Amino acid sequence: MNGDHQGLALTLFSVFVVVALAISTWFGRERQGTPEEFYAGGRLFSPMENGFAIAGDYMSAASFLGISGLIALYGYDGMLYSVGFLVAWLVVLFLVAELVRNCGRFTLADVLAARLRERPVRIAAGASSVVVSVLYLVAQMVGAGSLVALLLGGTDGRARGWTVVAVGALMVVYVTVGGMRATTWIQIVKAVLLMGGTATLTVLVLVRFHGDVSALLGTAADRSGHGRAFLAPGLRYGHDLTSRLDFISLGLALVLGTAGLPHILSRFSTVPTARAARRSVVWSIGLIGGFYLMTIVLGFGAAAVLGSDAVRASSAAGNTAVPLLALDLGGGAGSTGGTILFAVVAAIAFATILAVVAGVTLASSASVAHDLYGTLRRRGGRAPRDEVTVARAAAAGTGVVAIGLGLLAQNLNVAFLVGLAFAVAASANLPVLLYSLFWHRFTTRGAVWSVYGGLVPAVVLVLFSPVVSGAPDAVFPGLDFRLFPLENPGLVSVPLGFLAGWAGTVTSRQGADAAAHAESEVRSLTGAGAA
Amino acid sequence: MGKREGRRAVTVQPPTGAESPHDAAGIYREVQRSAAFREVRGRYRRFVFPATVAFLLWYLAYVLAATLAPEVMARPVMGALNVAMLAGLAQFASTFLLTWAYARHARLRRDPAAMELRWAVTLETLQDTRPRRLELPAGRGPAAWRPAGGGDVR
After folding, report:
1. ipTM
2. Membrane spanning segments where (chain A) (predicted)?
């Protein structure tokens, strides 16, 4: 990378930072005093706006850089990620979006509290939402660090550290000043930039191969060094039984985790009705599906244009495949076109990280202020302080925690961290949500057991997995206390979450509250009495 | 046809007997037991449950095939395209198709009846909390209690 790229990319990125700051202060001028405004942006977004915002929240840099990079290195096995990430949206569309819009207010815990005893379920669901959000945030921060290291040429630890701090500080400013309204607009701007950038590169790749997809795939296979095996599964996850099980585990977490992500759930409260929530999800499925189809073209395109070895030489994890591809498509290193395209791609990737981080931070601050603070404070008997003030402070607190963990986790693989957040969401949040929406006998004890029964195994299994110890690229490579062979806990922890919810319910001494269930069921399907 | 029946059944009768006539919980239980609500719920579940099972099994089969039978997936079909590539694209296609089918089903078969119910319940509960029902709390304009989709009927 030479100075031109860096200068231009940093300029473009600064423009985005300033625009986002302008959006935040602009919307911050309007009333932010009520929780309705701060967490839900007044509930007045249109389905199309919210659809773009959901897509913006979901298409993280891990998708943009990570999946294309994995495809460039491992061919077909990288593509398996995009399929799982997209199919997951059917769970959201069919089972979650409309019912959550009708039943909830801002957070997962609101949906549960509609029919269960408020205090225990709020604490449980609030705690697990915070855990998921923080894991997700750390993944994004680590991604930001790697990206700036790439951009500034070299893997200077201090530059990465300062990037993590800067990204964290910026997101705290955006969220505390602008609330949900500004965060949504930042997501929309980012989604448009990301789709535009990806579409441009995809068209350039297809033009390079004269629109012949078969020729593109054939060239990719030839230049990958693996031949035809590059176009079939098995290069990354086919070595032994453990790696295959690991993949199945990851696939399960991806498809079930999306519907349990707190920042996705809180997006449905920004539209006025359940019908609008459904139409936002239809929009976002179209956008996300189109985006992942394009990342597949970019991944194979990087293998065909650059060759897998060139990609691996720049970054062992493949995270630089797309920027390098942009450089080549624009006319190669040193050309004006290449410089501009590379800078644009790098700036979009930065903008993506910043926007996703802001969205997750907002969801996490809602869990802290709305669920945990409000509930724990009430027992103390003192009057609760203004909730929005607490939420702003919580956003700052979340930022500090995420910065700290982001600095510690700098050597972990970004895709793995995202997979882990999905696994925890699928184990702790999804079972309780589905039981609460669809099982008339579900009780408070069932809910509490379900959350902790998924959360604790997911976290404990990771602590005793090869990710933390016993492997050369683990967090503690020098120690070995690994007892669980898989990197992703989903295969075990997701069934445990469902099982615990069932066991807690059938052992409850009190039955389900039929009146509360009637109200929440009628509300969820008709929208009567919805916030 | 079904819509018309639903419309008549929606009128929520004041509960008789032990429950007080203006008890919100009573109204919700009454609605939950009504034929109109059971019809809405049935239509929703009859579409969503089989469709969810189908796409989860199809996705699981895809993941298992990729991990347990890579040689089948590697079989070439046409040019550089092989079974694995086509299966992946078919996952994309089935996701788009199911999304379209669900949106259509919900819009045509469920939304009108659900909106009627919402309206009926809203009126009943308003009556319950506010004896003088047209006097709305300050600061909550008509938009706050408009029926579902009031502004976005297509």
Report:
1. 0.92
2. 6-27, 52-74, 80-100, 121-139, 159-177, 189-209, 247-268, 280-306, 340-369, 390-408, 414-435, 447-468
